[in-house]
Amino acid sequence: MSASVSAPVRTPAAAPASASTPASTGSVPAPTAKDFASDQEVRWCPGCGDYAILKTIQQLMPELGVPRERVVFISGIGCAARFPYYMDTYGMHTIHGRAPAFATGVKLANPELDVWLVTGDGDGLSIGGNHLLHLLRRNVDVKVLLFNNEAYGLTKGQYSPTSREGTRTPSTPEGSVDHPVSPLAFALGAGARFIGRGIDTVRPRLAGVVRRAHAHRGASFIEIFQNCPVYNDGAFAGFTARDRAAAAQIEVRDGEPLRFGRNGEMGLRLDPRRLRLEVVEPGRDGVADEEVCVHDETNRVLAQLLIAMEPPDFPVATGVIHCAPAPEYVEAVAAQRERVRAERGGAGDLDALLRSGHTWRV
Prior knowledge:
Layout: H1 50-64, E1 71-75, H2 83-86, E2 90-93, H3 99-109, E3 114-120, H4 121-127, H5 129-138, E4 143-148, H6 183-189, E5 194-199, H7 203-215, E6 220-225, H8 237-240, H9 245-248, E7 249-252, E8 259-260, E9 266-271, E10 276-280, H10 300-308, E11 316-323, H11 329-344, H12 350-354
Parallel strand pairs: 1-2, 1-3, 3-4, 4-6, 5-6, 7-11
Antiparallel strand pairs: 5-11, 8-9, 9-10
Helix pairs in contact: 1-7, 3-5, 4-5
């Protein structure tokens, strides 16, 4: 895990012509998912949740309407970090935890690029936590996909920052005593203006969250629960198993009541005395439908309450949990640059700047 493992920028095999570019054979065909799949053999363990996430993104990309030559996927180190190799776009496989810094630089250098960051719970929240924090607080227009499998899969299953207390791994044979990081609580605390959550195998819902994240102007952060069948199989089965999902998950939608269950029979109500959510069953025990909370994705306090929900007492919240747009970092930098140029009557003289002030001759 050193700088030597990083790969240079990879150029797509053949960048397609944009819709506005005439083709020699007539109209340009619309891109498909296959156009975004590279010729590289996908090499993850059989049954890995990364396969489902990759397929979701490849199928979604044509819908977003961004030409491949304007798309960049950037990753750090870990199982998830192989992602750029499998997308036939530009890509950078960088160094452990530093992908947010690379992504920020790429976006600043060319704001027209569509920049995506793929990371894992170890890469993004351990050595990369500091870098990720600053990308989020600055509100850089980058789409962050954090694959959370609660383990270091690439290095043989050691516990990670998101591993639960008591988790037994090669590095915690007696069980972890660490309190885990909540990726979404971290992102919200860092000032992220878009926070969402999805599940690797629930592809339609995941695609919906990613589609919203792409439309958001500024940093967007998505936690994706991803199963590791080798080192942490079934870690999320308590709420992802088919016979439990309806009662253990709630998909939140802006402006709609927070209801869940096979037939929407359960709901979430705010207890005003203790300022916390509680699970209720409208129509029983004197609970009226009007008492069920309505999701407001601009409400930061509600987002905190939804993020904190965990089984068995609460369902796990998925979907767009918080979205409150704010000025974007790269645009602010560009505006400042133009203002300074206007005040000084043009671009500055870099050579004069370097030779100004105190200098020494050796």
